[in-house]
Amino acid sequence: MLFILSKANLDSVYAAFIMANGARAEGIEAEIFFTFFGLDAVRKETMNKLHIATVGNPALHMPTLLGGLPGVEAFATKMMKKEMEKLDIPPVSEFLEILSDSGVKLWACRLAVEMFHLKREDFIDELDGIISVGEFYQRIDTDQTHVLFI
Asked: What is the homologous superfamily of the domain 2-48+91-149 according to CATH?
């Protein structure tokens, strides 16, 4: 399973992490390619500051206008983190360590890294490298490899 994560809103990040972790638990190889704003999930400075997107998120079942009010995003994020804590779901930094230790490969998109003027030291130590889209596609080595864009 190769996951492409392009957003660093909390629900997208955890969706990719949980699916990659589940793949490893089933003995399936898994990799995550972090691109564009998904890079925030593996940046030291931002990975533990991710939020729920409340504006335009139909899954929250609230009007867009309400989601944009001051404090709503922080409240929704706090509530989600509280529920995840009850289920013993680790914070982003700890989850990344678990994924890496289980064999999940973690890649940053070279183009996005260059576009945002980032450096290797901006990222977690567990990052396996900064690669191009072409290099990522070369990792698709069989007809049984699946790519999922999150």
From this structure: DsrEFH-like (3.40.1260.10)
Q: How confident is the model at residue 99 (pLDDT cuts 50, 70, 90)?
A: very high
Query: Can you name the residues that pair with 4 across neighbouring β-strands?
Result: 33, 149
Predicted model pTM: 0.89
User: How many Cα neighbours within 13 Å face the side chain of 115?
Assistant: 10
How would you classify residue 108: left for phi > 0, otherwise alpha for psi between -120 and 50, otherwise beta? beta
**pLDDT value of position 145:** 87
Domain residue ranges in the chain: 2-48+91-149
Q: How many CB atoms lie within 10 A of CB 85?
A: 11
